Amino acid sequence: MIIRVILFILGFIVLDSNLVGCLAISSDFSGEEKEMSVKTIEEVLKEHTEELMSISGVVGIGQGLCNGKPCIKVLVIEKTPELEQEIPNSLEGYPVMIEETGEIRALPKK
Q1: Using a CB cutoff of 8 Å and minimum separation of 24, what contacts does 82-87 make?
Q2: How far is 84 from 97, CA to CA, in rounded Å?
């Protein structure tokens, strides 16, 4: 009886540690597994806004859904191979998607 209880407890510990490990892993668009951020996507965006907006050709950033999961969207005037190399595929575990929008201008005041 004692052996059964010990085996049950050991099995639970192994199962529990496997679940925790699964919760800490995500994959980006390349299929490569990456650790997920413990920060919210809002916190990650706030921390990286200045860095992303300083890239020539970037006109905006925001959050959205990519394949039904939260992602960071980087809006660019024109999607070029240079921008694709300069903009990371993920930030702190959140995938980054580049969207070509063209130039964005404020409407004139009436």
Answers
A1: 83/55, 83/57, 83/58, 86/55, 87/52, 87/55, 87/58
A2: 10
pLDDT tens for 18-63 read: 333 333 334 444 555 455 558 999 999 999 999 999 999 999 999 9
- Cα separation, 5 vs 101, in Å, equals 61
Handedness of CA 21, 31, 100, 57 (dihedral sign): positive
Query: Stretch 84-108: mean pLDDT, rounded?
Result: 93
Residue type, 63: Q
pTM: 0.63
Single-letter residue type at 99: E
The pair phi, psi for residue 12, each rounded to 5°, is -65, -40
Residue with the two structure tokens 């039904």: 68
Whether 55 and 48 have beta carbons less than 8 Å apart is answered as no
